[in-house]
Amino acid sequence: MKHISLLIIILFFISCGKDKVVQLPEINHSDISEIQDVSAAYLFYDESEPEGIELNRKNLISTTNWLVNVDKRLTLKQVIPQIKFLQNKKQNSEHKNENAKNYFTCNDLSRKNLGFVEFTNVVYHEDSSETYMSNIPEFKDIQNLKPISFNLDGQISIINPNSEPFIIMTNKNELLIDLKKLDTIESTLYLNFNKMLSFQDYITYKSMLLKSGFKHLKISNQEFLHN
User: Fold this and answer.
1) pLDDT of 175-204, one tens digit each?
2) Alpha-carbon distance 92 to 140, whole Å?
3) Does the pLDDT value for residue 10 go beyond 80?
4) Is the separation of the CB atoms in 116 and 67 below 8 Å?
């Protein structure tokens, strides 16, 4: 499937049939609109499956860029184990291309075409950042660490050790405004997502943060799920 065109990918969705349609997550704009040398995997929303999800990875080639097409209705609880499986499969392959990357495929509303969100270096943890950090000595000093939690009710909490109150509550509409206020010293954001959030919600939050243009805030490649 090397040098596959976007047209072929679109045709694949059509050819899958009624039971194999992927509803791609929507984003307002993606900086990445074209990728060469690709192969694709599909995570279908399928209520007939025990876990409600079906993975089709038959055409993946380890040396290519991977386009992972995830149905936006799936939850992170369903999706992330499959994503970790794919990442491990590529990492442990005997045939590697260090320049090959991984992307989520999205529906770019601004272009009315496909757009892509890279996740090559994202490390997914199926527990909270609090649990993760408590076991690593280098995280004992949390002054420059800012865990941020995206909750099911639409509320977003940001832990900022340097502020009063200690926990800042916000929402999607105010998120970037509140983060800009914290963009004054070198700090790292650790993203925590409720595991029952939809993949659409996940992509919405991720795309907002990726185009935020922070000067001092950095977004960790470690991402976490919580209950």
Assistant:
1) 999 999 999 989 999 999 999 999 999 999
2) 32
3) no
4) yes
Rounded to a whole number, what is the largest CA-CA distance in the chain? 55
Q: What is the CA radius of gyration of the chain?
A: 18
Structure tokens at 200: 């659409």
Q: What angle do CA 145, 189, 85 make, to 5 degrees?
A: 115
Q: What interhelical angle do 76-91 and 199-210 show, nearest 10?
A: 70
Predicted confidence (pLDDT) at residue 8 exceeds the cutoff of 50: no
In the prediction, which pLDDT does 211 show? Answer: 87
Percent of the chain with pLDDT over 70: 88
| Domains annotated on the chain, with CATH | 6-118 (no CATH), 123-226 (3.30.420)
- Integer Cα distance of 89 and 65 in angstroms: 13
Q: Is 7 exposed, middle or buried (0-12, 13-18, 19+ CB in 10 A)?
A: exposed
Distance CA 186, CA 51 (A): 41
The tokens of 78 are what? 């369903």
**107 vs 82: CA distance, rounded Å:** 21
Please tell me the distance from the alpha carbon of residue 209 to that of residue 213, in angstroms, as a whole number: 8
Q: Phi, psi (5° rounding) for residue 57?
A: -130, 20
Closest CA to 126 of 179, 68, 65, 196: 196
